[in-house]
Amino acid sequence: MLLSHAFGLFTHPDQEWASIKKERQHPTRLYVAYVVILAAIAPICAYISTAHFGWSAGNERLIKLTEISAIQLSVLTYLAMLVGVFALGYAINWMAKTYGAKEEAVPSNGMALAAYSCTPLFLAGFALLYPVPWFNALVFLVAACYGAWLMFDGLPIVMGIEKDQAVMYAGALLTVALVILVSTRVGSVIIWNLGVGPVFVSG
Predict the structure, then answer these.
(1) Closest by alpha carbon to 30, among 3, 70, 53?
(2) Where is the Yip1 domain (predicted)?
(3) In the chain, where do the E strands start and end?
(4) How many CA atoms, within 13 angstroms, populate the side-chain half-sphere of residue 117?
(5) DSSP 36-56
(6) Residue ranges of the chain with pLDDT lower than 50?
(7) Among the four 59, 115, 168, 201, which has the fewest Cβ within 10 Å?
(8) 3-state secondary structure of 40
């Protein structure tokens, strides 16, 4: 049932958001049955493409990651995605009162909005099976834009606020999302410096 929402958000988002709010899934169940599953797409595809397919450098030389390096980076990416979605859901609930919504003791609406808004980014992970940097960047850019629109579209429905409040609310949440992204990138650099950085080999 939860996974069916992933497709509904692309075909009839308003109806899907209304259905999501009506369900009021517990955050733990939503996280385990939806986020944990879909967030694994990108790390798994990235592991397959970087360790087995590789990508071409400027002189057509095939570059790959070692098996261990690919696994390490995939696991780190997976953990960063899980933390990022949780942090975004927490921020949505924490900011609720500021924008006229109801802050919940159990952040069902906030976590649902964060999880389902990230659906395009989760599914964009399949693009990593075709390891061409410009193509991957384009797909994830389009996915990020649609995810941001989904959040804006879902805020009034899921959080029960006016459309004009949703504009400011969404702007604040996008700022939070950027902070989360930068924080995870900085964390990755720190971990790389501790000896978990990428190790390349010729294909």
Answers:
(1) 3
(2) 7-183
(3) 55-56, 62-65, 200-202
(4) 29
(5) HHHTTHHHHHHHHIIIII-EE
(6) none
(7) 59
(8) coil
CB environment 123-162: b (16+ within 10 A), e (fewer): bbbebbeebeeeebeebbeebbebbbebbbbbbbbbbebe
Residue-range definition of the domain harbouring residue 175: 2-202
Give rounded-to-5 percent helix, strand, coil for the chain: 80, 5, 20
Q: What is the pTM of this model?
A: 0.91
The H-or-E segment that residue 151 falls in is: helix 133-159
Instruction: Judge contact between 129 and 99, C-beta under 8 A.
Output: no
Residue 106, helix vs strand vs coil: coil
- As given in the structure block, the two tokens for residue 67 are 């098996």
Q: How far apart are the first and last CA of the chain?
A: 42
Token look-up 């964009």 returns 124
d(CA 6, CA 3): 5
Residues 65 and 34 sit within 8 Å (Cβ to Cβ): no
